[in-house]
Amino acid sequence: MKSIHLQIRFLVPLLVTLTVAALLALPLLDRMTLRWFSRDLSARGSMVAKTLSLAISDIEPNAKLDRLRGLLERGVLDERLVGIALCSATNEQILSTKGFPTSLTCQEARTIARQQDPRLELASGAVHIGDFPVNTQQADSDRLVLLHDLSLPDRRSIDTRRYMIIFITLLGLAVAGITMVVAQLSWRGWVSGMRAIMRGEGLVRPLLQTGGGGTDSAPPELQPLEVEIRQHLRELEDNLYREHGPLTPWDPERLRGLLRTQLRGDQVIVVSNREPYIHLRGADGIHVSRPASGLVTAVEPVMRACSGTWIAHGSGNADQETVDEHDRVAVPPDTKDYVLRRIWLTKEEEEGYYQGFANEGLWPLCHVAHVRPVFRESDWAQYRAVNQRFADAVVAEARSDDPVVLVQDYHFALLPAMVREKLPNATIITFWHIPWPNPESFGICPWRRELLQGMLGSTILGFHTRFHCKNFTETVDRYLEARIEHEHSTISYQGEPTLVQSYPISIAWPTDEERVAWPAPTEARRAVFERLGLAEGTCLAVGVDRFDYTKGILERLHAVERLLEKYPQWQGRFVLVQVAAPTRSALDEYREFQDRIHRVTDRINLQYGQGSYKPVLLLAEHHDHAALMELYRAADMCVVTSLHDGMNLVCKEFIAARDDEQGVLILSRFAGAARELPEALVINPYHVEETTDALHRAATMPPQEQRERMASLRMTVREFNVYRWAGRMLADAGQWRLRERITRRVQRRSREGSEATTP
Ligand code: GDG
Prior knowledge:
By secondary structure, the chain is an alpha/beta fold. Helices cover 52% and strands 16% of the residues. It is built from 24 helices and 23 strands. α7 (252-261) packs across α8 (294-306) and α7 (252-261) runs parallel beside α24. It is elongated and about 165 Å long. 39% of the residues are buried.
């Protein structure tokens, strides 16, 4: 229907054009035909005149007028000749035939005959006047004036005009018909072509064609359009996706829904060493602090969403004063969404379990950072004892025999099996926040079997990446007698299966309320520049880490030093602000490392600093969350150069903070995050030159490229947020529990059945 309308809209102007063309052409045609006839009549008249001239010359000189008249009268027998007159050289009429108008003098006839259109209108009709010499050799010869009837040519002209109109009409109709058919066909082609493009067939065709399939291709004239439309659609789609995220994004509500439906509101208990809120006594009373810990950053929003109980070491100097008689305190302080149950550790326990076995043994063992692990028998004993104490606390906090227990990190490798022993129906989800090394590296641990056995008490064992899962499975294969089913990602040890899966951790995407409280990037930049005394126009790079040797802070400093040497234009104009939150400073390895970083910083500042300008500002103190946000938003780039990192959440926080879609992320390929965030400038931190060039590239990256990269990074982090991390684990746990319940029911029924049949 639409195409018919379009054709009518197309045809009407075509017909109008043809009609106008016909109207303009017809008078022209008239003139042309008359000219042809006039020429024809002149030629004819000349011939008649010649014939008559011969006859006249025979009669002369003593011819009688009667004979002459008779001759002329015979001449006008031709129906087209109206009259003939014989005129003298002096324009006297010698004689004329009857039809020759008496009013027409020889003089007049001669004048008209010389005109281009020698036409004379008489009462009887129009005549053509021809004037011919009787003797062409003689200058003053008599002349013959011939009058030709013009009604015949006029009739012919009307006929010609009629034929012409019919011809033009038929031609117009034919052209219109052909145009309609062609338009119809091409319209259909266009419409189907456009529809195919809109359906995205244009997008998959290149794939089909490279795969040898797909002959369906847009008409050639549509192909440039196809490319353009495809780009526009992609951009629209990207923007829409960036704007709205996935169709059902993971958020606290969805996580709560999952707990209600799939886990039937079962109790959630988190176990970690680090507590999410630390009460500290200061000069002006007790205040609450949030620790610098990736684990806390990730798990805390999940607990806010799920409620339940979080069991952790009470490490703050005012922690004891703020708990109830069961060592519990409701947190967060303002909303009190869940309960924090604190465990108190003696100095020996803390030294042996935490600083000793966990941080001097397992931490370097799992990170390829070239620091030798230290294994002490006494630390191991404390590690076991503390794991047991936390396991007992889990059992004590459990309100049913099948709670969901979320065990966090390498501090509690033995706890899953300990809880399983007391609560066989518990769903134990252990998440290992740090990398898992290859079997050879792990094999140097004297208690490798015990650690693996403890971890395999879990229902689900999660790592950040598949690579870590693979390393773990190979380690079990090497050191334990266990059944490994690669297809189902399960390891069955002593008949108890454990699902080993990768669950990349993330952060909670900032809510609108949080974002409203952020300073605008320009405001953040102004405040940071003022506070740190940075000159206007400085290129600001930030690093935010716990002050840990795995974070590649030394390598980062070397890259800055090389940048100033290799690209001297940055001297005086490039500053790295390194936040290094104090951590594990009681350990020699950490103290030495931190001293070294201070020394290298001083060296670089001495060499390249001028006046108040210092290329490296090392802020080795704890910052509050708002200060970090301000720094992220003020920076031109964020530098993450971990030598080995389970995931790394700083890079995700930087991305989440940049709602202006500006800023460049430099990211170590040895951080788990590098697998998810390829739009960052991914580098090998051991390669100083590569990191240096990345710093230079980031500092000179055009805003449009920054925007493209940042928009894409933001889309990833927004979608793959921490609720998704927890949600996927809990959904897997839900399915697992369902299967377990069904198995138990089936076993019970078959037991009852066999008891009933036993006499
Ligand atoms: C482990 C794994 C994995 C830092 N300084 C301050 C501060 N931070 C916060 C950051 C960030 C967190 O600490 C550090 O998280 P990371 O992920 O970078 O590193 P780890 O603590 O080593 O975490 C790591 C993580 O577990 C989660 O699984 O990604 O691979 O090593 O949130 O913002 N926070 C405050 N002040 C500081 O000065 N408030």
